[in-house]
Design a protein that fits this description.
Elements (H helix, E strand, L loop, with lengths): L16 H19 L2 E4 L8 E4 L2 H10 L8 H11 L8 H11 L5 H6 L1 H20 L4 E2 H18 L1 H26 L11 H26 L8 H7 L10 H14 L2 H16 L1 H15 L13 H13 L6 E3 L5 E3 L2 E3 L4 E4 L1 H4 L17 H4 L22 H18 E5 L7 E3 L3 E3 L4 E6 L12 H15 L10
Parallel strand pairs: 2-7
Antiparallel strand pairs: 1-2, 3-11, 4-7, 5-6, 8-11, 9-10
Helix pairs in contact: 3-8, 6-7, 6-17, 7-8, 7-12, 8-9, 9-11, 10-11, 12-14, 12-17, 13-17
The protein binds protoporphyrin IX containing FE.
The site of protoporphyrin IX containing FE has 23 residues, from helix 11, helix 12 and helix 17.
Pfam families: p450
Organism: Streptomyces bingchenggensis (strain BCW-1)
GO molecular function: heme binding; iron ion binding; monooxygenase activity; oxidoreductase activity, acting on paired donors, with incorporation or reduction of molecular oxygen
């Protein structure tokens, strides 16, 4: 027997539309608290009623068990498509399946591990600038600096030396394009791209500029007889199916754009929130510093160090719990279906929020508390596979989870070695959901320099070391999922 999900009626005529517009995450959170794990929100406009599913069992049903009937919501995918064409993030069906297979080699652990040097180099450069800011008593814009850091890391991983050559122009075009895309994503309705509004024109110009550079880099690479660099672009250009076919130039461009946009704001958001939480919890920051000092001394971390930095791992995991960068996703069933016994009519918008589920009191005691040690008894799996799902799950789970976690851990370990971030007094930090979970006014902070760390404790025995290296890839990866598409 199925039932209609309960939910708030909201205001007369408008229903819940204004509550969604004002603060959608709080509206969903309230809905779950007051009505339970499947909520039906009435409202005005073509998207309502909107369903919300907050229980890990329901999320598993949608993302994993019934994923074929729950593709991504078309109007959300269309907005991505304006930016990345038929890239992995918004394609469906056979095209998605083939592209996912062809993209998989780009996320091979060996390749991701090789990006660690780029990650630590970019971080060291930023830390030099932050040290100068600290000496000059200047504030730093953590949100902006993390965004630029993550873009630089991704640009290097995608294009190797070609990125260094074009980084300023490309970074600027990415910033403009994503800024405009943000505005579009923020609105339920926006004017079609063909209408020459100033915003549409800015967006089109930035996309054209990016296209010009990306197509040129691809063409140069094709014309060059080698040797070619070991980067994401090369992996995309050389990937083949069993029948020997690969991607067209346009498909390579689409996936490059997808990684560029899917893979830097997410990491930047995760890092910004982690630094914010550390600034609010000096006792956690102190333990993080103690661990990196003991294990690394003053030297740079590598992927092989990560298994010996369990506190770094717990801090990352716990901050992704409280502030998951992709805090809201949606699906739309092709046919009438049920979730946890409640009717979900075909064509409806179904929202899933890691931000809300990561605070579900049945799975997370003291849900709002920042407590990295809660992970000690839980282990990597957490209390339920879908109680912690910052990288989503099922076949459409994030392809860049290993990349993202590795970067977050290396960057945070290096920051803990050299600086302590202190939130600027009186600066409000309010979550703002967009493509990723940002902050209403960014995160502005001062930087305090740390004393130089003592030399590292002697490394573990040689045998244990090689075991650690063998275990490193696993520890750097998404703790919940394996590597490949399912
Ligand atoms: C902390 C960092 C990251 C987080 C939290 C994150 C989160 C997510 C989530 C939740 C999804 C699923 C969206 C949905 O189902 O609607 C996703 C998909 C995706 N992510 Fe990530 N991501 C991160 C880093 C990255 C990186 C570094 C890359 C690439 C370099 C990347 C590329 C992608 C792609 C291509 C997809 C679409 C996969 C598909 O549909 O087959 N992500 N990500």
């Amino acid at each position: 027997m199925t039932r209609q999900a309960p939910g708030p009626k909201g205001e007369p005529v408008l229903g819940n539309a204004r509550a969604f517009q004002a603060d959608i995450l709080q509206a969903l959170q309230r809905g779950r608290r007051e009505y339970g794990d499947v909520v039906r929100f009435e409202g005005i406009g073509p998207l309502f009623p909107v369903f919300f599913v907050g229980h890990p069992d329901g999320i598993k049903e949608i993302l994993q068990d019934k994923h074929r009937n729950f593709p991504k919501t078309p109007f959300v995918s269309d907005r991505w498509r304006a930016l990345v064409g038929d890239g992995l993030i918004c394609s469906e069906g056979e095209l998605w399946k083939r592209q996912r297979r062809l993209c998989q080699p780009a996320f091979h652990r060996r390749l991701i591990t090789s990006f660690a040097t780029g990650m630590t180099e970019v971080t060291a450069e930023l830390l030099d600038r932050w040290e100068a800011a600290a000496r000059a008593h200047r504030e730093v814009d953590v949100t902006l600096d993390m965004t630029r850091l993550a873009l630089s890391v991704l640009g290097g991983a995608l294009f190797g030396a070609n990125w260094r050559q074009d980084s300023e122009v490309m970074a600027h075009a990415v910033e403009v394009a994503i800024g405009e895309a943000y505005k579009k994503f923020g609105k339920f309705v926006s004017l079609p791209e063909g209408v020459p509004t100033p915003a549409n024109l800015r967006f089109a110009r930035a996309r054209k500029q990016l296209d010009r550079i990306i197509y040129r880099v691809i063409e140069d690479r094709r014309a060059d007889r080698g040797p070619h660099p070991d980067d994401l672009l090369e992996a995309l250009m050389t990937a083949t199916e069993d029948d020997g076919s690969g991607m067209t130039v346009e498909q390579v461009r689409n996936e490059v754009m997808t990684f560029m946009f899917g893979g830097h704001e997410t990491v930047a958001s995760g890092l910004t929130w982690a630094l914010y939480l550390l600034s609010r919890h000096p006792e956690v920051a102190a333990r993080l510093e103690a661990e990196v000092d003991e294990v690394l001394g003053g030297r740079l971390p590598g992927v092989e160090d990560l298994p010996r930095l369990p506190y770094v791992d717990r801090v990352v995991r716990e901050s992704l719990r409280l502030y998951p960068p992709v805090s809201l996703i949606s699906r739309t069933p092709l046919e009438d279906d049920t979730v946890q016994g409640y009717d979900i009519p075909k064509g409806s918008m179904v929202l899933l929020s890691s931000f809300v589920t990561h605070r579900h009191p049945d799975f997370w005691p003291n849900p709002e508390g920042f407590d990295p040690d809660r992970w000690i008894p839980l282990g990597e799996q957490g209390p339920h596979r879908y109680a912690w799902w910052p990288f989503s799950g099922g076949p459409r789970k994030c392809i860049g989870d290993v990349f993202g976690l590795q970067e977050m851990k290396l960057v945070l370990a290096m920051m803990a070695q050299r600086v302590r971030v202190r939130l600027a007094p009186g600066h409000p930090v309010i979550p703002r959901p967009g493509i990723t979970l940002g902050q209403e006014h960014g995160v502005i902070a001062t930087v305090a320099l740390r004393e130089k760390a003592p030399p590292a404790a002697p490394r573990a025995l040689a045998g244990a070391d090689s075991e650690a290296i063998a275990a490193a890839a696993a520890a750097a990866g998404c703790p919940v999922h394996g590597g490949g598409a399912r």
